[in-house]
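Q: Joint fold for the lines below.
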Amino acid sequence: MISIKNLHKSYQMGSSSLHVLKGIDFEVEEGELVAIMGSSGSGKSTLLNILGMLDTADEGDYILDGVEIKDLDETKAAKYRNKFLGFVFQSFNLINYKNAAENVSLPLYYQGVSRKERQQVALEYLDRVGLKEWATHLPSELSGGQKQRVAIARAMASQPKVLLADEPTGALDTKTSYEVMDLIQQINDEGNTILVVTHEPDIAQMCKRIVMLKDGVIVEDKKVKQVKAAAHV
Amino acid sequence: MFNRDRWQEIFQTIGKNKLRTFLSGFTVALGIFIFVILFGFGNGLKNTFQEFFLDDATNTLFVYPGRTSKPYKGYKADRRIEFKNDDLADIKAEFDFYLEDITPRISRSANVKYKNESNNYSTRAVAPAHQAIEKTILMKGRYINQNDIQTQAKVAVIGRLVALDLFKNEDPIGKYLAFDSSVFKVVGVFQDEGGDNEERGIYIPYTTRQAIEKSNDKVDQIIVTFRPELGHLGALAFERELRLFLKAKKSIDPTDQNGVFIRNVADDLKRNQQFSNVLQLIVTFVGLGTLIAGIIGISNIMVFVVKERTKELGVRKALGASPRSIIAMILQESVFITLISGYMGMLVGVILLQNIGTTLEDYFIKNPYIDVSTAIFSTFILVAFGTIAGYIPAKRAARIKPIIALRDD
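A: Joint structure:
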């Protein structure tokens, strides 16, 4: 599903340049649930941003679902993001003046789906994250866990090839974190490919594979026995 | 542009962000409102001004006799010059090419009586041509005519306020007024845009006045109108020749400045127009300043709006919004808001101007107005600049990488 080779990324910091990714080689199969771990500054978020086409690499190849991702202009990147990717952010990033259903239907709007169908799909996905009754509520009326579930529903609504989650539980307490992870596991069990960036070992253990990043290189890449979050809820 | 979905998206954004919408809308509306009002007031000022000076026909020369200041052809200095009826005829004959009309004017004050009412009014003894020169508007009856002149008829055309004073609700036409130990039949009632003073006047045939005053043929003042197509230069030439002619006829030293006075309304007009143009310039300048202030206001608001939405735009981009759709969304929204509120501001301004009418006359602002094309053009300018002002930050926002926009702060 995802294949990257020799990925490099540097940031210009004034006169000096900060080499964040120093040649990453990395494959993800369809249906995997991968945790990308590392301390802050290890380059894990940068990697995810490049995978999510929110940022571009300086060097290296990136193939997503058989499509080579390169020479992206913003328009093309927007199209690919819309078609291939779903995002979940640490701070949810829901649009605060739109209610839950409207937030979920937003990616479909950019796909050109009709209003009626958008509404229907949005309700369907809200139902899947258990928030159908909250469809008309604004983000400010939802708890942190509910917000993240809406965000996951939004990410899934466009039926992406890959779901990218950047510290999805970073702003949540342990119990809520496990609820969210349970949801992510369920989505993964349905065959969706998911990448989770986290620095919490317990969250990483709930994935099927852990990739450890340190100082811009992969230091460890292992399959793990998945801990079911449902057992802890 | 006419994508229904996008409009729905925009309406939702507008509806859910009332403060922001109100702020930007209010800025535009206020800008255009102030512009309309100021521009209208400027025009009102011009109206008042023009009324002061332009109540008479502008192709007019007023000719007054004076006293000579130099001896000439055996006459001593300080000789009093008088105009007579034959001067009228001579001018008419001599200046046929220039002349449109000619009338004498003999002004006297008179105590006028009707039944038990009496009051002092100024009377003007004139020829029929005087009506056009003074722009006298007849409300009832007729003006002095040629027949009155020939028969020295004792007829009077009275001002609207004279009729009001003396006749109250009676119809003055056909009634008789007594003044200067004669009785005059009222044949007409007039009004005049020159104001109340003009409307407290009475016109009688000049020959009648001359008959009353011991059958002389003296004339106080001669008023001539020239053909308007002569233009300003033609008018000046006419004035020069008329002066020479009269000086020769009255045996006045050609270099004497005081024998004959000619006031050229065209000269006044030109001066007034210059003043009027300065006024117009000030109005335009003030209007332009307001417009620029409005544009700056909108630009500020647009920068603020886009800044405030940076995160939302980042989310939208992450969800697959192309830069184009981001720019289009912001612009369409801002054009919509500025158009609607600009139109409202313009409408309120125009309606207010119309309702002011003459209520601010004491402040020299009468019937302020703004012509529709100026109002619409300035609204359009404001909207256009609002759009440009929105486009720059919108474009920058569309170019920001989503990760930067989404960065937690």
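Q: Anything notable?
A: Residues 265-308 of chain B form the longest helix (44 residues). The mean pLDDT of chain B is 84.
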